[in-house]
Amino acid sequence: MARVLVVDDDQTFLDVAAELLEGLGHQISSCNSLGAAQMMVKSQRFDHLLLDLMLPDGSGLQLLDSLNERQRESTRVTIITGHPSITQSVKSLYGPRVNYLVKPLTITALQQALSEQSIPTTPAVTTPAPQHATSSPQALLVGESPQIKQLISTIERVAATDANVMLMGESGVGKEVVSQAIHQASRAHEPFVATNCGALNKDLINSELFGHEKGAFTGALNRKPGVFEQAGAGTLFLDEITEMPLDLQTNLLRVLESRQFVRVGGQEPLAVQCRVISATNRDEQAIAREKCLREDLYFRLAVFPIHIPPLRERDGDIPILAEHFLNQLNNQHGSGLVLGKPELARLCDYSWPGNVRELRHCIHRAFIMTDPDSRTLQLPDKLGSPFASSEANDPGDFTLKPGQSIEQMERALIEMTLEKLGGDRTRAAKMLGVSTKTLYNRLKAYESEQEHTDVSAN
Amino acid sequence: MSAPTNLDEFIHDLRNPLNNISMYAELGKMQAQQGATAEKLLQTFDTIIAQCQRSSQLLDSLKQHG
């Protein structure tokens, strides 16, 4: 039996695909848009994705970008398309881990696609550790900076204990990778179950966490194990824990305190055996300030808190990570692209507000866009994604760098604000939180400074 | 039913009902083999007929605009 997600905008097709595939013994989930599918792959694990290429809000291929590293390794993808000509061009981009079916489908073709074994493995420079072997964190965490070495030693220490761990770090720093590294170093023979608390349906959250009995509520057709039960004596990874509604956090607290849970609609208490690793992109101060996590639950979850540094604080790892991602793509596609020195320098100069994830996406996009005849990877003119936070969204080149004086920063901020407001000094003063007089004085000082510089230059 | 704007789009749109016809025919076979009720089988055949009509309407729209 495979857990299959079918994504297509044609409801008639979704209905028949679910009925047929369930008849063949598979467990089917379906949705009709890319957005809904992205939410589903965040909160559930699927063995196989059946994707329509053209969806109302994007391409089925975009869903592949939403898969995390572990899902990429374990999920088989079949693209269903109405255009036979597309298959060849897409095939060359996405390699052997994706296969294709052209409409109209037959049951034989579907059966064959679903029965094909997992992705053929190609020799990789850093092969992810097999599921059933204990391995060191170095196999999953790439880098040689002091920060990453410190992180690896912390992981090794926590792996030797049964303590619950809370991972804190900005979006894209690799919280799930760290959680896998802890799992691999401690409970690798047991299951690893990941769920995203932000993507769970509020009404079904208890059922998702603790499972339900048959008939517990409308639609509960069968008994379903929750993530605590699925994780067994392994690791349960609760991502975006601070997104869980406060009133529902009480249930989780009770379970962690009593080390027991009961399926929704059930009677029998079951023991919690797994280690819980939770993750959030907030730090302790923000958690306390925003009151998004109950204090008592925080202490249960963060017996061992780990802060994962943003990429800009370990920028010495950028070349190693970039080479690593490029090698992975080269291996998947049988190509031999290399990173040139100027490209590497550009990668190192960028601040990567989206962290390692942004770097990986950047290399992947560049890999796709690079001229097939080129030997070196060609980077786009502008690095960075439109979603990257903070400074990437700001106009100008206003970036904080150690060594700059407060005067320099103040001047840059004033000039940038004026530029954005088209020179409106009154509004700029208001936005900067200073009086108009102060702003005028500053501008006058800059002017005389400029005149002085010009005179000296002449 | 509005006509698709170009031939590629038209072919894509026509493959959807064709695909449904194929899939429902497969489902009908499975249901017959598993001894499904007549009611279930009739529902399946009704969907096949509806999808044939959808294909026909698409072809008509092409003719009108072609």
UniProtKB/TrEMBL annotation, chain B:
<protein>
    <recommendedName>
        <fullName>histidine kinase</fullName>
        <ecNumber>2.7.13.3</ecNumber>
    </recommendedName>
</protein>
<dbReference type="InterPro" id="IPR003661">
    <property type="entry name" value="HisK_dim/P_dom"/>
</dbReference>
<feature type="domain" description="Signal transduction histidine kinase dimerisation/phosphoacceptor">
    <location>
        <begin position="12"/>
        <end position="62"/>
    </location>
</feature>
<keyword id="KW-0808">Transferase</keyword>
<keyword id="KW-0418">Kinase</keyword>
<dbReference type="InterPro" id="IPR036097">
    <property type="entry name" value="HisK_dim/P_sf"/>
</dbReference>
<dbReference type="Pfam" id="PF00512">
    <property type="entry name" value="HisKA"/>
</dbReference>
<dbReference type="GO" id="GO:0016301">
    <property type="term" value="F:kinase activity"/>
</dbReference>
